[in-house]
Amino acid sequence: MKKIIWILAAVLMCGATRAQTDSTAVGRKKVAIVLSGGGAKGMAHIGVLKVLEKAGIPVDIVTGTSMGSIIGGLYAIGYNANSLDSMVRVQDWGYVITDKEDLRRQSLSDRQKQNTYFFSTGLTIGKRDMNAGGFIKGKNLAELFQQLCTGYTDSLDFTRDLRIPFACVATNIIDNSEVDFHSGRLPQAMRASMAIPAAFSPVRIGSKVLVDGGLKNNYPADIAREMGADIIIGVTVQGAPKVAEDMGGTMSILSQIIDVNCKNKYDENLAITDLHLQVDTKGYGSASFSQAAIDTLIRRGEELAMRHWDDIIALKQRIGIDESFHPHILQPLRPKVMTEKQRVLSYTFENMTPQAERFLRQKFHLNKKEGHDSIDAKLEQALTTSMRVDLFYQTAECQLVPDGDAVHVILSAGNRKSVQLHAGMRYDNEEYAAVQLGLDIPFKTAIPVNTDITLRLGKRLKTRAELTIHPRSFTRPTLSYEFSRNDVDIYMKGDLAYTILYNQFQGEFIPINFNMKNFNLQFGLRWDFMHYRNKLGSEDSPRVTLKNEHFISYRARLNYNSEDNWYFPTRGTRFNAEYAYVTNNFAELNERGADGTLLDKRTGMSDVSADWRFSFTFGERFTLQPMLYGRLLFGSFIPPVFGNTVGSEWFGHYVEQQMPFAGIGNMEYVDHHIVAAQLQAQQRISTNNYILLSVAGAQQANQVKDLLDSRTMIGVQAAYYYNTMFGPVGAAFGYSNHTKKAYFFLNLGYEF
Description:
Elements: H1 2-21, H2 23-26, E1 31-35, H3 44-55, E2 61-65, H4 67-76, H5 81-90, H6 93-96, H7 108-114, E3 119-123, E4 134-136, H8 139-148, E5 156-157, E6 166-172, E7 177-181, E8 183-184, H9 186-193, E9 198-200, E10 203-205, E11 208-212, H10 214-217, H11 221-226, E12 231-236, H12 250-261, H13 266-271, E13 275-278, H14 291-307, H15 309-319, E14 342-350, H16 354-363, E15 373-375, H17 377-389, E16 396-403, E17 406-413, E18 419-428, E19 432-443, E20 449-457, E21 461-469, E22 478-492, E23 495-516, E24 519-537, E25 549-561, E26 572-583, E27 591-592, E28 598-600, E29 605-618, E30 622-634, E31 645-646, E32 658-659, E33 668-669, E34 673-685, E35 689-701, E36 713-724, E37 727-736, E38 742-748
Parallel strand pairs: 1-2, 1-12, 2-6, 4-9, 12-13, 14-17, 31-32
Antiparallel strand pairs: 3-18, 5-8, 6-7, 6-11, 10-11, 14-15, 16-17, 18-19, 18-38, 19-20, 20-21, 21-22, 22-23, 23-24, 24-25, 25-26, 26-29, 27-28, 29-30, 30-34, 31-33, 34-35, 35-36, 36-37, 37-38
Helix pairs in contact: 3-5, 3-14, 4-9, 8-9
């Protein structure tokens, strides 16, 4: 009974809201809000809406273009100004306006790829990609719109079915015509209206190819008039007209071309506007999506509207209401889709194989029993990400269809990818330029299987092929083969001692490969063959005998990573540990002469290594990162190729066993046992600028019992980095008592 009363109350409230915003119910004029395009600058619309609500201005019609269509469309379905303010502030716009995958629930190897390659795209060979045509396909934007418009994702009449009648504008580039959306799927209409040509892929509907509506009608006041508006309140965010002196570069010229083309109908539409509010957005552009920019733009919109407060209040008389009139502000009567869980009645899988459906049900524990599952925005995103990453679908969509107090979940897939292409580039002052390409090729099998091919071009050449089976459980058996041609400089006390040129052939079989969120456990067998080509060095360089040799090792690895950022974490933990037993005949590490004669019979070598890093943040920008790490080698014989090395910025940068050490660059051999500690202070300046200060200490010895008796290695380092979409760009300066020399390192791009 109580439930029926609540339902009736909701219906009555909805009816009352529509009645009080209906101009015919109070004998007043119809009011329209018109919101222009402008990319991120359109955040200022929210500030203006706040003041209009405060003033008690009723809204009967909303029209918009580009960002104005997004703000206006959400306002029309029930998001008031405060809801919009909260929504835009919690978004990770750096993720939303790109095609990056949300890999928080994917494997560590998938996350590593995302932080190695700056470019990644899926290709469907033999089939036309209907999402092509722009640098950004806009899948994350489409996914966000789908979530925000829950309950309004079917084909609707925007005048009859939305809380406030709405329309938005797109441009059909087939015939350069204006397309006005008065009906259809709201998320699709919003996505089409903001599809900036070349930046975002167009939206294809039937024979139309739709891009940003600003090219034809960036301020659609005429549409509001056609919809019956008597009073038009318009908000624009365009800057002052540019002059010749402003044309100083490619981007300024391109921006001017867009601005000039967006002048269509602009003056005519301003002429029919009753109150025009032009927000000052100087200093900000279409891509200014930082938190500081959003805060400033919303504030500027609010401040501008407050300066026109008297004009807004005076407008009430023209509307036909007095100063005391305050309409009911629309509030969503549906669940808060961005934060709350919703009960699931059923799952429907469209354009997917039965095997794909079973995979998703098992991976995400999707219960077949009605009403026992729940879903929120994070799970929606994880489901569509898995469809693209694990199951190799080109597109994926999760639609929630309300049914009472619960929802039906519809998962729709596009074409299967033929390949996923990755590309990465980097430069540093030690190895110079390098390029790495990756290719994921899925097999059309009942159980997902894919091949990962990697090619690295540079001073160190590498080719790698990896075959991975993705059964429905979280284990992924893997078979890999790698060839690398290494050109490695070995330093002694900061001076170049010699250079080793060698080829390494490596095969590995990992039958046990458990993957869960942030966690990976592997057990496997590895074969290595070292073919030494040359050793170049001075006469006084250490005499190291190099001969071709092979090794067979048993390995166990444990990786855990809950850090929130791969390069500049502010919270979370990273832990890696590995044990390897190295032999050359499956049991022992015997030494043989050039003719194959057995010279010495030895037990295998044991290799134990680990590193453990924490991140503690104080305030919003300062982070302390203590780290412990080390590597211990046990056995009567340690092959030089497995010896401990330190130097550079990252673990395993030049050779697999390399460990970083503040103040030491390149690569230096150290004793067989080393334990180290590092404390790094990370200060974020503005959005993507970082200053890093590090101090490290280490003990090394050839016997464990002598570790505490050895001289302590100490190093210090200061670095500046700017985090770009192409990877970290910056430089480091350091000094250590091991090399007794200053160290400088310049890095551009992701590490590989």
